[in-house]
Design goal:
four-stranded parallel beta sheet; 8 strands; 8 helices; alpha/beta; Rossmann fold; 15% strand; 239 residues
Length: 239
């Protein structure tokens, strides 16, 4: 009997998020024939993670569909597992695996040119470790693209979009002729639109990439984390 894989998404009032999460679940199931892959949510959507875990056998593997480790992966989910399914094993977040290829592909699909300066935008967290994680991903993206990459957080734009203005100014000073926005998000939603709309007030010709969605980097991360858990081998944590 195979171990059930429970994908744990955050949840959103924006229906696009749930649509994307369902597509990710389907893509993972295609990669893991014979494995029961179930989708659950921490908040705002159904089914809730506690319900899914409790009905997924004695030792399901919970894989958080989160791009940075913060409160939800460190506190919220472990507490739910402890109360409702103590035998479950929680893996690292999918963002512990590199998403650089996915970010680059989405930028190229949007029409990024070699003269564009890139802004990586993410949610932003109350956990400083999570924000540092995102900045490291920006460094990885910069190395891959051979150009500067600035980081902004959708929940921390500041008065008059100060963080975004600063990022654009730095990229322009570095020679960028145009700005390309790279969302470090699983799905489009209100936060990605907030940043996009704010950027439109600063520059008129920005390139906006799509979210990661079902890119192979996302699916590969889930599969790798699940297999690491079911083989009972130490999970390799990337920073």
């Amino acid at each position: 009997m195979t171990t059930t894989l429970v994908l744990v998404a955050h949840g959103s009032r924006d229906p696009r998020f749930a649509d994307t999460a369902r597509r990710v679940r389907a893509a993972v199931a295609d990669r893991l024939p014979g494995v029961r892959v179930r989708l659950s949510y921490l908040d705002l959507n159904e089914p809730r993670v506690e319900e899914v875990l409790a009905s997924s056998g004695p030792a399901p593997v919970a894989v958080p569909l989160l791009l940075a480790a913060g409160y939800h992966s460190k506190t919220d989910l472990p507490a739910i597992i402890g109360e409702h399914c103590p035998g479950a094993r929680q893996t690292d977040v999918i963002g512990s695996r590199t998403m650089t290829s996915g970010l680059v592909q989405r930028l190229r699909e949007a029409g990024m040119s070699r003269h564009d300066g890139v802004i990586l935008c993410a949610v932003g967290s109350s956990d400083p470790t999570a924000d540092r994680h995102v900045r490291r991903r920006a460094i990885e993206l910069s190395t891959r693209l051979h150009r500067p990459v600035e980081t902004v957080f959708a929940t921390k734009l500041g008065p008059n979009q100060r963080a975004l203005h600063t990022a654009v100014r730095r990229l322009r000073a570095g020679g960028a002729r145009r700005i390309a926005l790279s969302p470090y998000f699983l799905s489009a939603g209100l936060l990605t639109e907030r940043v996009e709309c704010a950027l439109d007030t600063i520059v008129s010709d920005a390139v906006v990439a799509g979210p990661l969605g079902t890119h192979a980097d996302v699916v590969d991360a889930v599969v790798s984390l699940y297999r690491g858990a079911t083989l009972d081998t130490p999970l390799v944590h990337q920073t």
